[in-house]
Amino acid sequence: MPNSKTYKISFLVLILILIICFFVNISFGSVSIPLKSIFNSLLGSADNESWQYIIQNYRLPKAFTAILVGSGLGISGLLMQTLFRNPLAGPFVLGISSGASLGVALVILGSGFFGGVFTTLLFSKWSVVIAASLGSFLVLLAVLMVSSKVRDTMAILIIGLMFGSITAAVVSVLSYFSSAEQLQQYIFWGFGSLGNLSWYELLVFFSIYVVGILLSIVSIKGLNTLLLGENYAKSLGLNIKQSRLIIIIATSLLAGTITAFAGPIAFIGLAIPHMTRQIFNTSNHKILLPAVFLFGAIVMLICDSIAQLPTSDYTLPINAITSLIGAPVVIWLLVRKRKMMF
Amino acid sequence: MTNDTKHIVLKTEQLSIGYTTKKKETVVASKINIELHKGELIGLVGANGIGKSTLLRTLTNVQNPLSGHVFINTINITDFQPEDLAKALSLVLTEQVASKNLSVFELVALGRQPYTNWVGNLTEHDINSINTSLQQTNIEDLKHKKCFELSDGQLQKVMIARALAQDTDLIILDEPTTHLDMYHKAYILKLLQRLAKETNKTILFSSHEIDLAIQLCDKMIVMTKDNVISDSPCHLISKGVFKTLFPKDLIDFDENSGSFRVKK
């Protein structure tokens, strides 16, 4: 294969940056902990108990969550862009996040609306997670059904936007009936958060994430074939229906669980694959998939470090940071390249 | 190009093509009996809307025949597993490739998909086969270019190279010369003629370049309103088939030069 050497170097560099970002991310927080103590607590021989507690039960899970969120969203964006032959596709644009938000809104706000037994049955962290996953899966299914009827990919994007509007409408209806406390809870969920996961929740998150990643890896060959377009893919013996289903399940598992556990994180899914293509200059998914994984994780760690507002007590909503970084990148790509490719 | 081997690669039996909707059956053409042999270059011609695309879609198993059968290497096309059909038949379509960010090598390499493992790793044999296809189509110098950097003519050569890399007995091209200038039309068809001879593959293409097809093809399939005839170009001319191809008010076929003339 051509250029395999340069790819190897780029991968090594990305891995190095990832490790550095990981430690930088852990060292940032409202409590400043010296770097030496951080290494000590990671090795389990901390000189300060509360520092060790902060690192082991707060900062480490948060850093891991950032890695899972960034890589998972990046990969699901990559899958969507290839599947829909559309460089603007991504979990956010296609309304998957809206679907998840709708599910969560129904659970958090709807509990007031439906009242009674429903409330006690549904209201827990896990119900939020399940509602978000279900919501995103249903929206993706709807997008898929439409995409099989409508040839025009722009129409699919507009449908994604429509789902966003429907969500907003349902949320405003529901919020009319819900208490201030519930509303606040929903809004905080919408800010996105990487820091609220316990090790146990992280384990559940990770298990579903691994299934999504495995399905993506299995799809690599099919994804590459799809770069030629569906008719060519068919002529190469690809079972379109089956690969399309696997890709969609992988995406909804990844984007769905991420939104469920970390809230809607904007723009990462759309921007990361494009930024990665700029670096690696290829469309081959065998290269892109691991590259997007690394790059997504790095960017998310950086975004989270910025959100910590180093040396201050404030934590900014992560969703705002990713939009602030992601949107200009997309604009820059469009202006500089005149054309987005996938 | 006399056929010392009479090996039949593609054969249709009383094939009837068209569309079925809930209410009725629309027959586009019927009683199609054609035989294509190994190493032949075959041109499919006919007026717009006569059903060339429908015929190609049926021959490539994209749509089902209304009745009759299509055989590739004596196996009924509907009995093929998708992977096996991909090893017997490759296509060059009119549609653009979805991603123009692919390099020429990557695109041609995708032709090896039916042979590669689950993740698509190329073996040495695959790479040799890709390089041979690049040589045969004279595009080795484009190997590392991106598709969006190529002209239409170059892109068409790349697509042909991809079909060659798929290593099939039969290659079917849907209007490979549209969007090309006169020189490149001739270039592509001449290339196809050479490939059929060199690689002993059967190459079927549809085209509106009747003049060129008459000069280059071993056999032509002519679709008219009433029937589908396949024969060598010379026989077709002497039978006067080309005169029935179009309405006679504007153009007429000149048998001596083998080309169409505008009526003065």
Keywords:
heterodimer; A: mainly alpha; ABC transporter involved in vitamin B12 uptake, BtuC; B: 264 residues; alpha/beta; Rossmann fold; five-stranded antiparallel beta sheet; 8 helices; 26% strand
Characterize the structure shown:
The complex is a heterodimer of chains A (342) and B (264). By secondary structure, chain A is mainly α. Chain A has helices at 4-27, 35-43, 49-83, 96-108, 110-114, 117-122, 125-149, 153-177, 180-191, 199-218, 220-226, 230-235, 240-262, 268-280, 285-307, 318-337. Chain A has one domain: ABC transporter involved in vitamin B12 uptake, BtuC (Orthogonal Bundle). Chain A has 16 helices and no strands. Chain A starts with a helix and ends in a 5-residue tail after the last helix. Chain B is of the alpha/beta class and 264 residues long. Chain B folds into two domains: 1-88 and 169-264, P-loop containing nucleotide triphosphate hydrolases (Rossmann fold, 3-Layer(aba) Sandwich); 89-167, no CATH class. Chain B has eight helices and 13 strands. Chain B has helices spanning 52-59, 82-86, 104-109, 124-136, 152-165, 182-199, 210-216, 233-239, and strands at residues 8-20, 25-32, 35-37, 41-46, 67-72, 75-76, 89-92, 170-173, 202-206, 219-223, 228-231, 251-254, 259-262. In chain B, the strands form three sheets. A six-stranded mixed beta sheet of chain B has the order 7-8-9-4-10-11, with helices on both faces. In chain B, strands 1, 2, 3, 5 and 6 form a five-stranded antiparallel beta sheet that branches. In chain B, strands 12-13 form a two-stranded antiparallel ribbon. In chain B, helix 4 packs across helix 5. The longest helix of chain B has 18 residues, at 182-199. The termini of chain B are far apart. Chain A binds chain B through residues 1-2, 82, 85, 217-218, 220-221, 224-232, 234-239, 277, 282-284, 286, 341-342, and chain B through 60, 62, 81-87, 89-91, 93, 95-103, 105-107, 110-111, 113-114, 116, 118-120, 122, 143-144, 148, 166.
